[in-house]
Specification:
Blueprint lengths: L2 H8 L2 H11 L10 H17 L21 H7 L14 E3 H11 L1 H4 L27 H4 L3 H11 L10 H14 L8 E3 L64
Antiparallel strand pairs: 1-2
Length: about 260
């Protein structure tokens, strides 16, 4: 007996059936009889009964027997984003003094006692100017909105246990960090009304307008524009668009 015959004995029935289907292309064919048509129709009907049916969109949540439509309260638990104008800020408040205590317990290990940063953790306070060659970006000199600080602390801090602080503690830490950056006085109390009114030093340092001109090139295979007629009308130089480690593009020597 050949090795092929030995292997055939070990093949499962399904595998043998698949092999026969593949080999069927080389076997002589015959015309289908009415009995074959009836058998095929019956088999198709049986398969249709067992085939999965896609439910309507409104029924898909429970299609597999698990999951429920979330309630308004459940959705609210995940909707924790805070807008620049303060929309979304919860009730509560925090003082600079209380923020110093909470910061010492929850934040100083990574960010330093006065926001100077420990190791490779980011600095939170800096008197560096953004116009320097290697500016240090911190909350006070870079962030445009105080409400963003509250949002980030609330959702991502402290690092080992994010989103574990109470609203009052988040307000207090926010007040303390703003005070470290000399943005608010020692008497500042952060809450949903006072925080959106804080004007950060870099509030207007972000531009949503792209100064680069809109350009369009038409693909061509024939009658293309002669290369000599192509003119460079503007560049990125002088627009502070491409800073690098050693300085902005304007300070780079032309190639």
């Amino acid at each position: 007996m050949s090795s092929w015959d030995n292997r055939n004995k070990r093949l499962p029935a399904v595998t043998m059936a698949a092999a026969l289907i593949v080999m069927g292309a080389a076997l002589p064919s015959r015309a289908a009889s009415p009995a074959d048509d009836a058998a095929n129709a019956a088999e198709a009907a049986a398969l249709a009964k067992t085939a999965p049916v896609m439910p309507a969109e409104s029924d898909r949540v429970n299609h597999y027997g698990y999951g429920t439509v979330p309630t308004a309260a459940q959705i609210a638990g995940w909707a924790i984003d805070i807008r620049p104008d303060g929309r979304g800020l919860p009730d509560g408040s925090g003082t600079v003094e209380h923020g110093a205590d909470v910061y010492a317990q929850q934040c100083a290990g990574c960010h330093g006692t006065f926001g100077e940063g420990e190791g490779r953790y980011p600095k939170l306070a800096s008197d560096s100017k953004l116009t320097g060659d290697q500016p240090t970006k911190a909350v006070g000199n870079y962030w445009p909105y105080a409400t963003t600080l509250w949002d980030y602390i609330n959702r991502a801090m402290p690092f080992p246990a994010p989103h574990s602080l109470s609203a009052n503690d988040v307000y207090a830490i926010t007040a303390y960090i703003l005070n470290l950056n000399n943005v608010v006085p020692d008497s500042f109390v952060a809450d949903r009304n006072s925080l959106p009114k804080v004007v950060m030093p870099n509030r207007h340092g972000f531009s949503l307008r792209d100064p680069r001109p809109d350009t369009a090139a038409t693909e061509c295979m024939t009658h293309c524009l002669p290369a000599a007629d192509v003119k460079i009308t503007s560049t990125a130089e002088g627009k502070d668009l491409t800073p690098r480690t050693s300085g902005p593009l304007d300070a780079m020597a032309p190639k």
